[in-house]
Amino acid sequence: MIVAADDWTQAIKLLRLMSLEMLELAQAGGWEEVTEWEVKRRALLEELFREAPPAELASALEDAARVALDSDAQLLELAREERDKLGDYLKSFGQNRRVRHAYQTF
Questions:
Q1: What is the pLDDT of residues 72-95, one digit of tens each?
Q2: What is the spatial distance between Cα 86 and Cα 80, in angstroms, rounded to a whole number?
Q3: Cβ-based burial of 15 (10 A; exposed 0-12, middle 13-18, buried ≥19)
């Protein structure tokens, strides 16, 4: 439970930083780390939205949530691209195996 305004401020900053770090990790191909960070960030989000923030920090929390959503949208696009690359690789792997089999049966 977040009680003091300083705790809220730190948690809000952490949400923003975690979201940006996850995007950077995804851009670098660190998908395992992204999933680890997502678990931690989800726990932080649950904590942040368990109760209303102090009035003076509501806009900072809204801004951090927008950063998280924007970063997640970019992260999802990167994940789709990675999934497509993996699908192409698996398809070519299967084709290579069929060609090799056909060659060996001649």
A1: 999 999 999 989 888 877 777 666
A2: 10
A3: buried
